[in-house]
C-alpha cells in the first residue's frame, strides 16, 4: 500500500540510506583515483618509462567513466521497472565486490600483462556500480522529500562525495604516517580496498531496511511503468538528456582537475610531498562539503537553475586564475587554490542532482537522470586528468584553466537552453 510505504520511511532513515550508500561508493571510487596516481603506475605497468606508466594508469581510471552509462542503462532499467530499493542494493554490491577484488590483485611483477588487464576489469565493475548508484540515491532522497525541500533532501547523497573523499584521503594519509614507503608500496595500499568490505555491509544493512519511494509506488499502483525505459528516454526525452549532460559538464571537469590532476601534478612537477598535498586537499574538501548545503538552501528558495548558473560563472572565473594560484613553493597559495576550486565545486554539486531528477517523469527518472549524469562523466571527467596533463606539459598550466573555462561556458549554454526543453 502506498500509505504504508510512506509511513515506514522516516526522513532520518531515508536520508541516512541515501548518504551512506554514496559515501561508500565515492570512497571506493576515490581510493582508486589516489592509488592510480601514487601506486598503480609502478605496480601494474612496465616501469621502464614512468611518465608512460602514469598515463596508462590514468587511462584505467578513465575506464570507469565509460562503464558508468552502461550501469545507468542496466540499473536504471530495473530501477524504473522493479523499484529503487532492490536496484540500489544490487549497485552497492557490484561496486563493493569490484573494489575488494582490486585489493587482492597480483601485480605486474607476478603475472605480467594480466595484472593491468584484471585491474581494468575491476575498474570497469566499479564504474558499472557507481553508474547505477548515484541516480537511485538521489531519487531515494528527492522522491521522499516534502514540498519545498526537494533540493535540501537531494543534498544528502551529494554529501557522500566529500565525505567519501575525506575518508579515502584520510586513510592514505594514515598509512603514509605509520608505514614506510616500502611497506606502503608492498602491501599497505591494499588496506583501503579490503576495508571497504566492512562499509559495504553497513550500507546493505541500512538499505535493506527501507521501503519503496512514494513516487515510484504511485507508478506501480497506476501501472505507468514503461517497457524499455532506456528507449523511452532516447526517443521521447532527447533534449532533456542532452541538456542534462552538458548541465553538469563543468562539475565533472572541475572536480577531477582539483583532485586527481592536481595531486599528480603537484607531487610530480611542483615538488610537494604526497603527505603534504593530501593534507592540503583534505582542507579544501571541507569547503566542498560546507558549500553543498549552502547551495541547496539557495536552490530551494530561488530555484535550482539560478543556483547552477551562479556556480558555473564562478567556475569560469576560477579557470582564468588557475595557473596563478597553482604554483610551486607556496603551500598557502595551493591551499587557497584548492579551497576556492572545491568551494565552487560544492556550489555546483549541491543542486545538480535535484535539477537532473526534475528533468524526467517518474517512470523513466532513474534511467534519465543517471544516464545524463554519467554521460557528463565521460565528457567531463574520464579524460580530464589525461587532457590536463597533456595541456600542462605542452602549453603550461594556464591552458588547463582555459580548458575549465570552456567546460563552464558549455554548462552555461545548457542551463540557458534547458527551460525550453522542460517546457
Automatic annotation (TrEMBL):
Position of the signal peptide: none
Main localization, broad class: membrane
Segments traversing the membrane: 12-33, 53-76, 88-111, 117-140, 152-175, 187-208, 241-265, 277-299, 306-325, 331-350, 371-393, 399-418
Gene Ontology cellular component annotations, sorted alphabetically: plasma membrane
Pfam families from the UniProt entry: MFS_1 (PF07690)
Membrane protein topology class: Multi-pass membrane protein
Top-level taxon of origin: Bacteria
Localisation: Cell inner membrane
UniProt GO MF annotations: transmembrane transporter activity
Residue stretches making up the Major facilitator superfamily (MFS) profile domain: 14-423
Gene3D superfamilies per record: MFS general substrate transporter like domains
Keywords carried by this UniProt record: Cell inner membrane, Cell membrane, Membrane, Transmembrane, Transmembrane helix, Transport
PANTHER family associated with the record: INNER MEMBRANE METABOLITE TRANSPORT PROTEIN YHJE (PTHR43045:SF2), SHIKIMATE TRANSPORTER (PTHR43045)
Name of the protein described by the UniProt record: MFS transporter
Organism (species): Pseudoxanthomonas dokdonensis
